[in-house]
Automatic annotation (TrEMBL):
Membrane topology: Multi-pass membrane protein
Keyword terms, alphabetized: Cell membrane, Membrane, Transmembrane, Transmembrane helix
Family: Belongs to the 4-toluene sulfonate uptake permease (TSUP) (TC 2.A.102) family.
InterPro entries attached to this UniProt entry: TM_pro_TauE-like
Transmembrane segments: 6-38, 50-71, 77-99, 111-131, 143-169, 181-203, 215-235, 247-264
Pfam family, one: TauE
Keyword Cell membrane: yes
Official protein name in the record: Probable membrane transporter protein
Domain of life where this protein originates: Bacteria
Cellular location(s): Cell membrane; Membrane
Origin organism lineage: Bacteria, Pseudomonadati, Pseudomonadota, Gammaproteobacteria, Candidatus Tenderiales
Length: 265
């Protein structure tokens, strides 16, 4: 158990940096590491991936708060976009958690890796993919629908939403620094709603480890949150110091490495 706690604390450091730097809540890093940590603790194999996803979302809540405050101090959060996406994300993330409960752990793991791989290639290539202006006439409806889709996929994969929100906003012509800041803010409603979904859908699971409520393992949540709160502001400072092209390549490289690791483990 002591080894696991050390892993959770170190994981929180990486999560805080990624949340501030890339606008991702850390699920991309948290989930694969938790899968390995839970295997080390001899948890029931049929519940490991679901526990990793639910625990990931629960730990992202505090990280998201710290990251968005750091970006807000730099005036990078575009709040009308956050509000437009947030409503759809809340509904979508609840739906994603319900869908995940019907899928096997191995299927979830492969879907997670595939989505990460595709987005990594897109970001590293700097794909210009037709950029359109954010017009007032379509903004609210489009953001609502985009938020619902992002929320559902993010909850299904146990991520905070930045993996999809950042590429979407870059495609829509937003500066990546703004995209990262908006993504950090949007991670909070996804994490809250998704974590609640995993908690509720896991209440009837009979093979949960001690100190778990539904598919949320609280020792991991506490360890990750404790250190991620300290490192998220540092990541935000780095994000605003890096040029756009370099930041996109860092984002894509992180996704690619983790996608490969999830195919292997």
């Amino acid at each position: 158990m002591l080894d696991a706690i050390v892993i959770y604390l170190l994981l929180g450091c990486a999560v805080g940096l990624s949340a501030g730097l890339l606008g991702v809540g850390g699920g991309l890093i948290i989930v694969p590491v938790l899968v390995v940590a839970f295997q080390m603790q001899d948890m029931q194999s049929s519940t490991i991936m679901h526990l990793a996803l639910g625990t990931s979302l629960a730990s992202i809540v505090m990280t998201a708060i710290s990251a968005v405050l750091a970006h807000q101090r730099r005036g990078a959060v575009v709040w009308h976009i956050v509000y437009g996406l947030a409503g759809g994300m809340l509904l979508g993330s609840l739906l994603g958690a319900v869908i995940a409960d019907q899928l096997s752990s191995s299927v979830l793991q492969r879907v997670f890796a595939l989505v990460e791989f595709v987005i990594a290639i897109y970001m590293m290539a700097g794909a210009p993919a037709v950029r359109r202006a954010m017009t007032v006439a379509i903004q609210r409806l489009e953001l609502l629908l985009a938020g619902a889709g992002i929320g559902a996929v993010s909850a299904l994969l146990g991520i905070g939403g930045g993996t999809l929100t950042v590429p979407y906003l870059c495609w829509r012509g937003r500066d990546i620094h703004q995209a990262v800041a908006v993504s950090a803010a949007c991670g909070l409603p996804i994490a809250l709603s998704g974590a609640l979904g995993y908690l509720l859908t896991g209440l009837d699971e009979i093979h949960l480890p001690p100190l778990a409520t539904g598919f949320i393992y609280w020792p991991a949540v506490g360890g990750i949150a404790a250190t991620s709160l300290l490192f998220a502001p540092l990541g935000a400072r780095l994000a605003h110091a890096l040029p756009v092209t370099q930041l996109k390549r860092v984002f894509g490289s992180v996704l690619l490495l983790i996608a490969v690791s999830m195919f292997v483990i």
